[in-house]
Amino acid sequence: MDGLVKGLINVALDHIQGGDDRDERDSQPRDERSRSSWAQVVSGEPEDHDGSSSNTDHNTTAWNRRQSYGRNDERKSGELSHAEEDKNNDGWETVLKKPPRQQTKVHKEQWGNYKRPLGEQEYSSEVDCGAGIEPSEEELADLSKALNRLWDLDLNRLVPGKDYEIDCGEGKKVYQKEDMAEGSLFSWLSDEIFTRPTYSRFCSLLDNYNPHEGHKEVVTPQEKQEQAAFIEEISRTAPIKYLYKYLSAKGIVSESYPDFKRMMTSLWFDLYGRGGTSSCSSAFEHVFVGEIKRGEQEVSGFHNWIQFYLEETKGRVDYQGYIFPRRRGQIPDSETQLLTIQFEWNGVLKSVSSTLIGVSPEFEIAIYTLCFYVGGEDNHVELGPYPVNVKCYRLGNKIGSAFPVADS
């Protein structure tokens, strides 16, 4: 009888949550709307385009326990001291759904140097690709060919089974709330990855942001140096050099490489308003780091696999399974590098999200920048073996959001 009652309650809750989806879509800020919702693009289910459902009671409780999470907070992982846990739990023991993972070792020896003036930075040698970074006439006329070329030029992309391993767990529909993953998405990742210059500089940027969407960001002079240094580092790689050649050939940027790098720094790191608050967001924060929508308890953005891995090892991300692909025969496995997944971040559910696993930071910066300047909101392209719709939403003259969707 107890099982029957619980089942009826779950059905009723599912009906109520499903009815809230339309209201959530209607309350979206204009830069987050789409002619067809993100969840509908992925699975045909009626959900918010950026994929979050409210699940309010559970998420609010979990989020309230993580209010200490913020920039420069030594406990920003949301973990409370044992004494605080005992006090907050009123004597109840917290039972983890999954065993805690050993935190990864990220090499931080150079991170202090990354905040030095640009003239005191040490960078990698320039990649010499010769004519290999010159876009062909076919690529200039076809965005799909250009993005596929960028896939080939991503010399820094990781190899499944050699550099990392993932466990996709079980699949689920967007609206399903059950956790279908017994463990974490990432089984392991080689420590060597974080010694690579573009990866290391990318990681050093991730803790510069407050996750609250309505929280005004304060960018220090050192963080500005860090941003410019990251752009300088990736500008020495093949994908960014190709991007520059492409945009220059199209007349979108000047032939000055320093001007191009300043444009890239502005495009990705300049602050803008989101959710009614000015200077609280940026393209980099939204796409790669992720945000929590104010008052709605929804995860917005957060499409980068490195951020996912690091947050998962710290216990802030709970992977809950992959979303069933619309086309049969495309069930993901440990070799798959384009995933559509569901997870919780700091106790807040992201019903559907997508990410390219193992690609380099410079590759993602390049494809989203190219789609922003040359493409549209929907960009149906080929990335290696994957048919992809690279979604790119504009917020004025800035990138509002950008992410890949597995094309059916």
Secondary structure elements and pairings:
Blueprint: H1 2-26, H2 38-43, H3 56-64, H4 82-88, H5 111-114, H6 137-141, H7 143-153, E1 164-166, E2 171-172, E3 186-189, H8 197-205, H9 221-234, H10 238-249, H11 257-269, E4 272-274, E5 277-281, H12 283-289, E6 291-292, E7 299-300, H13 305-313, E8 317-323, E9 338-345, E10 348-356, H14 361-374, E11 380-383, E12 386-395, E13 398-406
Parallel strand pairs: 2-8
Antiparallel strand pairs: 1-3, 4-5, 6-7, 8-9, 9-10, 11-12, 12-13
Helix pairs in contact: 7-14, 8-9, 9-11, 10-14
Biased composition (Polar residues): 52-70
Biased composition (Basic and acidic residues): 17-35, 71-90
Cofactor: Mn(2+)
Structure description:
Helix content is about 35%, strand content about 15%. The protein is of the alpha+beta class and about 400 residues long. It has one domain. The strands form 5 sheets. Strands 2-8-9-10 form a 4-stranded mixed sheet. Strands 11-12-13 form a 3-stranded antiparallel sheet. Strands 1-3 form a two-stranded antiparallel ribbon. It is globular, with a radius of gyration of 21 Å.
Mean pLDDT: 78
The assembly state of the depicted protein chains is single chain
In percent terms, what proportion of residues is strand? Answer: 15-25%
Task: Please indicate the count of domains.
Answer: 1
- The DSSP helix count reads 14
Rg calculated over all Cα atoms? 21 Å
Element string (H = helix, E = strand): HHHHHHHEEEHHHHEEHEEHEEEHEEE
Strand order of the largest sheet: 2-8-9-10
**Class derived from helix and strand content:** alpha+beta
Number of E strands: 13
Major pleated sheet = 4 strands, mixed
User: Roughly what percent helix?
Assistant: 25-40%
